[in-house]
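Protocol step 4 of 5: obtain the predicted structure for the target chain.
Materials: sequence only (see below). No template structures provided, no constraints applied. The aim of this step is simply to have a reference model before the mutagenesis design in step 5. Sequence pasted as it appears in the construct record:
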Amino acid sequence: MTSVRQEKAKFRTGARLHRARYRRILRFAAWHLVVTWWFELFLPRIWLGKIAERNRAQRMRRFARRFHNLAVDLGGLMIKVGQFMSSRLDVLPPEITAELEGLQDEVPPVPFAAIRALAETELGAPLETLFASVDPTPIAAASLGQAHRAQLRPDDADDTGLDAVVLKVQRPGIDEIVAIDLAALRKVGRWLSHVRLVSDRANAPALVEEFATTSRQEIDYLNEAANLERFAEDFATDPRVRTPKVVWERTTRQVLTLEDVTAIKITDSQRLLAAGIDPVKVAPVFAEIMFEQLFTNGFFHADPHPGNIFVTPNPEPSAEHPWTVTFIDFGMMGEVSAQTRSGLRKLLIAAAGRDGKGLVSAISDVGVLVPSADSAALERAMTELFARFGGMGFAELKEVDPHEFSDFAAEFGDVVRSLPFQLPENFLLIIRAMSLTSGVCSSLDPRFNLWDSVEPFAAQLLHDERGNLVRDVAKEAFDVASLTLRLPKRVDALLSQLEEGSQTVANPRLERHLVRLIRITQGGVAAVVFAALLISGAVIRAEDLVLGNVLMMVSAVPLLHSLWSARSLR
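Step 4 output (structure tokens):
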């Protein structure tokens, strides 16, 4: 009877704490939404915008500090929200991102006794019978779980080929905490959907749902293990990339056992140099690996912060591959659809080629710019942007005269702000991955120029796109030729059916018009086939001189047919 009362009291206490957590998140969000509305929307409308500008940086820092304290105190998804905000260097001011940057590592650990209890419940046996040893001191404490070093028992080590492993265990009660946090975030998302400044740019409720899906996947370690193996398969033949192996016999939904691949943290330049590894050479390799995930594989690591990436010296280093980039923590993964990936490839090629018009077209293709937008002004802005600042790295941009940036902003700022941009639902993780990639590379090399990595990768993509273009043109030419061959028979069949019907068609003039129509169609199709073959030959001639010349010569056949069709109509 006493135990039942204790359980009821515990349940009531838990429910009370959950309600308090929910209300605390909403109070924080509501207060800062009101403050933002007052300074950023109301004061400018009554011609007091200068007051808002005067203390904007101070307000931003105050907000970031308060959210930092809230996140550390509450933990759970609030840590994840802070981590997302700290990586949004593209849209959030440095006063916010700098303050929240520490949340990547600043998470208090759970006492080992609670971790042990959950792990033994999940695995169904005491840890002493499952592992030779488990270190009670965590090597990493994250918002949703924490990791401990362990040794497999000799028989398991023989079976798996592994000895040292990492035991990753969820934080006790994290399911309930995630549910409460998501309920609060959904409420905030609905609030934001009524703020036009936000709703014109993003579907806040949809973004919250995307975040919710990712968070629920992160607390399913079976899903993480499957992600790891899929990622490893994508890079199975790439000697630059390494991933840990999964010990499936010691893995459940809340416990994950992996090979211990701990090495040099990617941003630890001193240890890299001590190991004979030049950090400057690591940056472009890491960037290219991330590009391949996003633009080629379509399955990417969405949380590549420094704590999840190691540089591992090869035991038998070669001149070509003296080290590998080792990825861990595959709970937050993103997937890019074929259509979006095609748009991103176009965007990358246009950026590398400083093609303002192509860049705007690609932005529209991936859904960032709504189709109804008048993009002519944006094309001019992007062309001017490339002309002034194209090809510069972050270090070079810092040396540009601030007045030049001011002039550009004054000239094109209103144009960019007035266009109907939106944030597609599947872009949250893409932006996060690229923001973190840029930050890691800049940490490795302060003068790192992203263009130096983009341009060779874009050149390879362009080469691949040319091959795709030739295949597409050839397919279209084949389809058109097939239609041309079938068209006379179809018209003849139609005439036969009309003649055999109840209303006989016996109009020679109509038949002459149909024959003329067939010849016009054949001539037009022949012209299309001629153009397709000619363009195909011209596109690939630079890559394959023989095939290009053959296609260009063969194009003369449909050209002659087209001319004959035109002459016969006279």
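Step 4 remarks: The chain has 24 helices and eleven strands. Residues 467-481, 502-508 have pLDDT under 50 and may be disordered.
Proceed to step 5.
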